[in-house]
Amino acid sequence: MRDNHDYYFFLSYARSDDDEVIQHFFRDLSVEVRAYAGLPADTDVGFLDVQSMPIGVTWSRELMHALADCRTFVALVSPRYQLSEPCGREWGVFASRLKMLEESGQQVPPALLPLLWLPPEEVHPVVAAVQYQNSTTPEAYHRAGLRQLIRLQRHHDDYLQFVTELAEHIVRSSRQSIPAPPDNVNFDQFPSAFHHPPSNNVVELAADQVRFVVAAPTRADLSGPELQGRHTEFYGRRAEDWAPYRPALDRPIAEYARAIAEERQFRAVVTDLPSLLKWLKTAPAAGQLVVLLVDPWATRLRNRRRDLAGCDQYGAETITAVMVPANADDQQTQEKLGELTDALRNIFTNRLAGGEDLTFRTSIVAHESFGADLRVVLERSRNSSFRTAPVRRRPPGETRPRPILRGP
């Protein structure tokens, strides 16, 4: 008998993608799964996380248990879904469980179920690789997605048939057990299936990618003589945990930046300075936007000064922008801002040789101003990249059918 955490299905979706409509679909699907599994009406057969989970926030224990134990994974694919790192991580965790089953020599059930919620213009290669064909799936689903089947009354019968077939599939697939991830898997650090470098045979504009690089002290750095007495509430275990606009914005600035980028239809990654410099030595610099998020207090640390100076060796075509938050409510920073900003300018001598502009923004005193500046930087860079960046295409002669996501 199933326990409360052994769900028949996990419903993965992008937050704010018609949340009420999605909850309606979840309830309908749960009713049908219970019916085909012969379970009482009060049995929890599916998992739906209705809490908003910004990037960087630790996953709830309940969500981790559900993702580790569920028998099928239902993904509601939309443009926002493919840009969401939490959704990509959920997909990646479940896909890793199926891979474990395959490597053990067992037959892999069709348990990873991408459904077309709102048709994206480009289907991510990871999603496109999982295709389902069903001749009875209504034409309206292929054209406008499951969302429209639910919202428009004229598609009501088609919607009920779709949910019925999906529930039958879920119950059938649930007969085979899928191994749980190892106990030592860190769910919060699991890589997103949608944010890995794309394969070479995919048409893609590099202008759709942005790399946010955090140059900030860690909380451990504050114990040294260079930063002795600096307030700790803005810092964490990693440089990426830096949250300069607390208490007004109680989240890391990199995650706030990533959310803005995704809002503008960019795919974003967050890293630290050493990782950036290592990447620049091995990856082509042109095409991907790189935005440095710099804490001016980092200039007091020798290793951060060295790494920032290393970034200054690259031109603006490589380091797209430098943005320096300086919270107006952070009295320590405001008292030392002139000194800290001068130190930063002395590091970026090459970049500032022709004067400052929007791509080198110091003293950003509020997170609203930061967001406005970042949106301008992204759009200016996108427009420039679309004119100049190369497009990576499939090799000549190679063809591939248009990906179709159809009901199971």
Number of strands: 11
Instruction: Please report the distance between the alpha carbons of the first and last residues.
Output: 26 Å
Instruction: Work out the helix count.
Output: 13
Estimate the strand proportion. Answer: 5-15%
Shape: elongated
Strand-pairing-aware structural class? alpha/beta
Radius of gyration over C-alpha positions, nearest whole angstrom: 24 Å
Residue stretches low in confidence (pLDDT < 50, at least 5 long) are 52-57, 197-207, 385-408
- The share of residues in helices is 25-40%
Largest sheet: 5 strands, parallel
**Rounded mean pLDDT score:** 82
Secondary-structure element string = EHEHEHHEHHHHEEHEHEHEHEHE
Task: Give the strand order, joined by hyphens, for the main sheet.
Answer: 7-6-8-9-10
Short description:
The protein is of the alpha/beta class. It is 38% helix and 12% strand.
Explain the overall architecture.
This protein is α/β, with parallel strands linked by helices and 408 residues long. It has helices spanning 19-37, 61-69, 79-83, 85-103, 125-128, 139-144, 146-151, 156-173, 253-263, 273-282, 302-312, 331-347, 367-388, and strands at residues 9-12, 46-47, 72-77, 112-116, 204-205, 209-215, 267-272, 289-294, 321-325, 360-364, 391-392. α9 crosses α13 (367-388). The relative contact order is 0.12. The model is unreliable at 52-57, 197-207 and 385-408 (pLDDT under 50).
